[in-house]
């Protein structure tokens, strides 16, 4: 595999680095000293440098946004793939000693790539947790320990293999019934900037609160989570019904806004909006298609009767419904209805609820008042522009259990008062990355158009759909509270202040830093 071994390769590496990568500068010395530090920690066979034949494949293995796989994308000096907590501790220690920035990557799904790139010119190191991915399910006590390198598909499959009536909410099909993933975390194994291993009891409730959604990578490294499992029953029902503009999609969508957040909490109502080829009466070859989807914790006959009473405009019938297990519904609503469950274990499969092609840009909004029909007409006109052929919007209804949690329960504050969340996505092929700014410019124009229709003061955003356009930290690592507040309050509202206080206490030197990490209070 071409792993880096200290005994034979370190002298050659230093000669190569000094001769070809830099002039003889302190950078080469730092690099060599860092590698020597790692070798003394007995993890050299888990270290990949840019000279290593496996370096590129390891780097790109969990990059799900090909916008960041270009010749000019900043790349780490070193990637470390730990097998044990001591390997993580050693990498933290050596990075601190030699002044290197650190990035921590688990699933690699960060929409702006902050877990594996850096906009700063400073050299950086990636800790890739892909090898730390065990899932231990305790059916009797309805809990599980999940290492941070595991992807959601691995968790879902492991639970389903043990008991198909148990599940985990995540952010998705069950959050209106049971809350978010963060609401169902009950313990964690965590390493701070000093290399200490902490759990919920030893870290204290403030830090435990912060790591459950307080901007990943800000406070330390979570190695594993203890989560509470929830009940889903043996059978759920799924449907997806598509309507074009010519089939009254605008009017049905307008109505959906007024009622979807009131649906029973056992329903997950969502909408996907895109364009499709057609021939319209006015001669257009494109139209907008709105797909109404729902997962329901129950039988099809119950769902049909319910929808006829509360949303008859959609025209749902039993023929539109499919009964299945909960884990199968993940495939059905994830655009993988004919796949085996094993596809959920494929870490490289690049299909999700949001993005189906390699390169993309995403933004998010929260809607508190229904958008008028004239507002949708403006949305349609922009969706039909040439640059928007790869655009997809996703509406997810709120309400249910989300209305019961206080905004301060965890750092995620978007609770009662939200009708639904919108994610805006623009996608393009990897070989079209040269035109990426054209597509991103369209997204920014559209985001500006939506301003009158969404939340205000602040205009809220979802931190897991990270968007560096709304603000980012200074590259030198020193960002004032006022600067950080610009984006911090959009993600966290009033919880932002508490996060800054905790960061100042746990990591005052700001070792764990990225473009949108919480920084200590610098004034």
TrEMBL record:
Subcellular location: Secreted, Cell wall
Pfam families noted in UniProt: BBE, FAD_binding_4
Keywords, sorted A to Z: Cell wall, Disulfide bond, FAD, Flavoprotein, Glycoprotein, Nucleotide-binding, Oxidoreductase, Secreted, Signal
Principal cellular location given in the protein's record: secreted
Domain of life: Eukaryota
GO MF term list: FAD binding; oxidoreductase activity
Domain FAD-binding PCMH-type: 72-232
Signal peptide: 1-27
Gene3D superfamilies: 3.30.465.10, 3.40.462.20, Uridine Diphospho-n-acetylenolpyruvylglucosamine Reductase, domain 2
InterPro entries: BBE, FAD-bd_PCMH, FAD-bd_PCMH-like_sf, FAD-bd_PCMH_sub1, FAD-bd_PCMH_sub2, Oxid_FAD_bind_N
Cofactor: FAD
Annotated family: Belongs to the oxygen-dependent FAD-linked oxidoreductase family.
Name this protein carries in UniProt: FAD-binding PCMH-type domain-containing protein
The species this protein was found in: Gossypium barbadense
Lineage of source species: Eukaryota, Viridiplantae, Streptophyta, Embryophyta, Tracheophyta
């Amino acid at each position: 595999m071409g792993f880096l071994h200290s005994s034979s390769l370190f002298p050659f590496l230093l000669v190569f680095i000094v001769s070809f990568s830099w002039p003889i500068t302190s950078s080469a010395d730092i690099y060599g000293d860092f590698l020597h530090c790692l070798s003394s920690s007995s993890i050299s066979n888990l270290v990949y440098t840019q000279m290593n034949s496996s370096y590129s494949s390891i780097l790109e293995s969990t990059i799900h946004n090909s916008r960041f796989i270009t010749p000019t994308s900043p790349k780490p000096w070193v990637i470390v793939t730990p097998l044990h907590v001591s390997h993580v501790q050693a990498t933290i220690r050596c990075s601190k000693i030699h002044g290197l920035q650190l990035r921590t990557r688990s699933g690699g799904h960060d929409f702006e790539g902050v877990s594996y790139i850096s906009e700063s010119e400073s050299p950086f190191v990636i800790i890739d947790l892909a090898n730390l991915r065990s899932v231990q399910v305790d059916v009797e006590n309805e809990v599980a320990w999940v290492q941070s390198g595991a992807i959601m598909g691995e968790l879902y499959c492991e639970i389903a293999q043990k008991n198909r009536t148990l599940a985990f909410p995540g952010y998705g099909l069950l959050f209106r019934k049971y809350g978010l993933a963060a609401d169902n975390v009950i313990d964690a194994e965590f390493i701070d900037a000093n290399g200490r291993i902490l759990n919920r009891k030893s870290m204290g409730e403030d830090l435990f609160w912060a790591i459950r959604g307080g901007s990943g990578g800000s406070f330390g490294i979570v190695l594993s989570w203890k989560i509470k499992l929830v009940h889903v029953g043996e059978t759920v029902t799924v449907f997806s019904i598509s309507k074009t503009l010519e089939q009254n999609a605008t009017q049905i969508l307008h109505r959906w806004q007024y009622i979807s957040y009131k649906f029973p909490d056992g329903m997950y109502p969502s909408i996907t909006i895109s364009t499709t080829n057609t021939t319209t009466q006015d001669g257009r070859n494109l139209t907008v298609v709105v797909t109404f989807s729902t997962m329901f914790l129950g039988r099809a006959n119950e769902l049909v009767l319910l929808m006829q009473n509360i949303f008859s405009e959609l025209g749902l019938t039993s023929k539109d419904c499919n009964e299945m297990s909960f884990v199968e519904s993940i495939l059905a609503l994830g655009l993988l209805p004919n796949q085996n469950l094993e596809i959920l274990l494929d870490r490289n499969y690049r299909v999700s609820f949001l993005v189906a092609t390699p390169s993309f840009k995403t933004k998010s909004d929260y809607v508190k008042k229904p958008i008028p029909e004239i507002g949708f007409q403006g949305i349609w006109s922009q969706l039909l522009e040439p640059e928007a052929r790869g655009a997809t919007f996703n509406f997810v209804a709120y309400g249910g259990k989300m209305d019961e949690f206080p905004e301060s329960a965890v750092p995620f504050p978007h609770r009662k008062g939200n009708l639904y969340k919108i994610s805006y996505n623009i996608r393009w092929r990897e070989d079209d990355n040269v035109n990426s700014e054209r597509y991103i410019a369209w997204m920014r124009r559209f985001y500006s158009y939506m301003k009158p229709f969404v939340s205000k003061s602040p205009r809220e955003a979802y931190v897991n759909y990270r968007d560096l356009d709304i603000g980012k930290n200074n590259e030198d690592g020193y960002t004032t509270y006022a600067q950080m507040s610009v984006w911090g309050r959009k993600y966290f509202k009033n919880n932002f202040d508490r996060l800054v206080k905790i960061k100042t206490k746990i990591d005052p030197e700001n070792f764990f830093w990225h473009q949108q990490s919480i920084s200590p209070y610098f004034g």
